[in-house]
Amino acid sequence: MKSFDTSSAVESGTVAGNNVDDDGGEKRTGTLMTASAHIITAVIGSGVLSLAWAIAQLGWVAGTVLLVSFAVVVNYTSRMLADCYRSPDAGTRNNTYMDVVRAYLGGRKVQLCGLAQYGSLVGMTIGYTITASISLVAIGKANCFHDEGHGAKCLVSNYPAMAAFGIVQIVLSQIPNFHKLSFLSIIAAVMSFSYSSIGTGLALAALASGKVGKTKLTGTVVGVDVTASDKLWKSFQAAGNIAFSYAYSVVLVEIQDTLSSSPPENIVMKKASLVGVSTATAFYILCACIGYATFGSQAPGDLLTDFGFYEPYWLIDFANACIAVHLIGAYQVIAQPVFQFVEKKCNKAWPESNFITKEHSMNIPLLGKCRINFFRLLWRTIYVIFSTVVAMIFPFFNAVLGLIGALAFWPLTVYFPVEMHISQKKVKKYTMRWIGLKLLVLVCLIVSFLAAVGSIVGLISSVKAYKPFHNLY
Questions:
Q1: pLDDT by residue (tens digit) across 355-383?
Q2: Please, which residues have CB within 8 angstroms of residue 285's CB and are 6 or more apart in sequence?
Q3: Which residues contact 395 (CB under 8 A, 6 or more apart)?
């Protein structure tokens, strides 16, 4: 994505020609490793720890088949989207998802893409704030359970944790653009491997010690574990959770825009997508299947924060700390396109405004000389405060996020990539390839619709139990 930091060649006029990219912007230096780190940070979220619950609703057969099927689908459509980064094939760069849709489809679809993408991104930053605070609270609860016993009432407010998370994000949000985020994504990717491995390892240890849950080929049993209606809605939710757990198309183009032009960006991005999806699938299957084998139909919604395990408490503390650190990085990866979108619009609207465009060099303790833009400082601070306050007011927002994910998954991960591929490759109507692509779009639309219905049912239950500013965990 284009940077509006005046360290870029276009704005400062001080960078040598060999540091300028073919579109006149700052030289891109992204590699396969940095792109893979961005993808893993975006894909492997703390939701991996809830997949055991998803398998419990669907059973061994449907759950495992869906995990593998959606991995294949997402990797396939991501390859299509990567090929659309330049238009025509080796021509103009399209720096954002909206730019790609504008180049190949145009019309109202550009606005629909923007609504789906940025609505989803804003929702995800709010959801990450809530999830990070729950993980931080779980550290205190784990210590309490260790000291007072597993039956103790260890209720802790997550508002201080949300506020602390927000303060950290205000500082990190001053990182100018995606190009400067590589170090944070690498740290976040390591954290995601850490807590996923700990959750899987604890489940495996419990399984080895003889704790085996009641599992079924078809999951939870109607009349024994759940009612018929609960089985239906929770199965829809579980299918949606699995589908959305792979969805990173919302930031794919922005990640690709960080890559060096040699070798070609689409080739590197396809390899990075394969690395990211393959790594995620391996962790998902391990964590989901071992977790389900251990807990059976009673699998918790989250292996760590819902206390599927109590001991060793220090290891659970460390895992929850890893979740919080990962979400700190993931928040930035998800928020950068929102930041850049607003800043790009404002730069175009008021190019003569020093407040918006001018960079100031300042010495900051421990950080040394940094370039500060007052508009960036103000706007990004306001955004982080907004997302934190919304998280505090609506602690059930993760239920809303499930609905947002259901609505955004289909257009961003399936529909737009397929339609642009058809336009780019000039696939003729009613050929076998055209019919196959349209069937893929239809099947994924049905999955998104059913998941949305399941999320609405869950949201209604959350709203009924909601008490403002009383969310103790």
A1: 888 877 777 665 566 778 889 999 999 99
A2: 64, 67, 68
A3: 130, 158, 466, 471
